[in-house]
Amino acid sequence: MKMELKVCTFNVRSVYVGEDGVNSFLFRSGMILEKIRRESPDLICFQEVIDPIRAFFNNHLDGYDLYGYGRNADRRGEGVTIAVRHGLFTLISFESFWLSPTPNVPATRYPGQSSCPRICPVAVFLTKEGKLLRVAGIHLDHVSDDARILGIKLVMEYLAEKQTELKADATLVLGDFNARETSATMKWVDENTVFPLVEVTKDSGPTFHWWGRLVPGSKDEPRKIDFIYLDPESAKTARDLDVWKDQEQGIYLSDHYPFTVKFDL
Q1: How many structural domains does the chain have?
Q2: Do residues 226 and 259 touch, judged by C-beta distance below 8 A?
Q3: Domain range for 161
Q4: Number of H helices, E strands in the chain
Q5: What is the CATH number of the domain that holds 127?
Q6: N or C: which end of the chain has fewer CB within 10 A?
Q7: Distance (Å, whole) CA 43 – CA 58
Q8: Element (H or E) spanning 64, and its range?
Q9: 195 to 15, 53, 80, 181: CA distances (angstroms)
Q10: d(CA 97, CA 100)
Q11: What is the pLDDT of residues 64-107, one digit of tens each?
């Protein structure tokens, strides 16, 4: 029996209160909770989750179990969090590694990367029907294509290795790749043979809009840098892409448009 899953990628923007003014997380938080309550995704991959945002979700994102920690050596600071609806899955395994030549050494980076370490959480879930879902949360470097490619290649190598150890019925890779569709990074992802995947959100349009400030057709225009990928078989069932463009009096859900897609497991 097939199970329909609705999954979401959501860069929440890592300013709790301060430079973003009315769009600081503190002032968007109620809007975010209400949107998630209405849409009720089964799984959400949050990026830019800093400590106060992590604490807020732990305290107020009712009905979800959260997995993930910060990218710093002490496991604090900004990170990627995977949230799943409570009772939907049984967690089989969870681990995080750093995108670097030494992935098990906290806070390490690739040469040429920005000053920001990058971390990848990977969870394996079991459904009530006995199906296994493996999920990798992505937030690649914002400066270097070389670092992005090395990072995503490491993720694909990890997924390929884990698939031989424990075969998942579906693999989901989603998040902020910090790269345009035409970039060398995304070309590598789309053509990779290490662990082939299919993008299921090609029609999302631009996702990074910087609070509506970026102007279409200008030098600094909105751009698509957020993606959802599935293994080729699962991708055949993908449908109902929905981009969340909500705003109220100039307050947005984030400086990225979150979006959801459904597929069958």
Answers
A1: 1
A2: yes
A3: 4-264
A4: 5, 14
A5: 3.60.10.10
A6: N
A7: 15
A8: strand 64-67
A9: 34, 32, 21, 19
A10: 9
A11: 999 999 999 999 999 999 999 999 999 999 999 999 999 999 99
